[in-house]
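JOB MANIFEST
job_type = single_chain_structure
chain_count = 1
residues = 285
[input]
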Amino acid sequence: MKGVVTDIEAYKTRREQDRVAPFESDRKVVRLSSDVAIGGKEICVIAGPCSIESEEQFLAVISSVKESGAKAIRGGIFKPRTSPYSFQGLGSTGFNILDNAKKTFGSPIISEVMDQRMLEEMAEHVDAFQVGARNMYNYPLLKDLGRLNKPVLLKRSMMATIEEFVGAAEYILSHGNSNVILCERGIRSFDSNTRFCLDLAAISVLKEKLKQPIIVDPSHGTGVARYVEPMALAAIAAGADGIMIEVHATPEKALSDGKQALTFDAFRSLMLKLDKVSNAVGRSI
């Protein structure tokens, strides 16, 4: 135990030094694969379905979004849902689909982990773990992720302050894993026109507090497909290092979150506009 405490104390000392460093000094770049990274000059676009429904569906989405320029793929096989009667994902039977997708397309794959008991098995099939909004406060899971060297995409809880979000990231960082990507995905508000209130100001605030790359999920952040494009463009203009977009061949038939998923054509159109906005702020897609 003494060793663990000493390591954490050393980490706290380094963090205090980071706080007085220049605003843009030494930003962290997290590599998802040998040729895909988040946090550098190039914007990383992550795209895919909220949930993998079948191998045919998943491979069709990957083929389309990769052709349009997506660098990494999202695809959940474990899906936490508000109702226990809703589609919960394919579970461990989906691992073969992830493996085949990686073998076919070569793109890094990000998938959600919900329990530390899943870590060892999932680590063999994914390139990065996603911690969903509901698990941001799952500190035993965050500690165990901190003991691994695999990238972790940490989503902000719908009820979390920025300080609480930073604290969750610190649980992973302080246990040795520096490969943490922060994801702003909207917080609850009193307005019902959008699913959540997408907090784009958090991008600038988080950059002052941590050196980790920051991405934005406008799909969950708005919950409405027609609002995804403008919020994605605004996120890049505001300084995000990447975006995560839900894409489905037939959103109206999706087993989860179809209302916020883009069609293949809509995603292709978005990528063309993202290229222009990225160039305008001195970056690239």
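[summary]
The chain has one domain: 2-279.
The radius of gyration is 18 Å.
exit_status = 0
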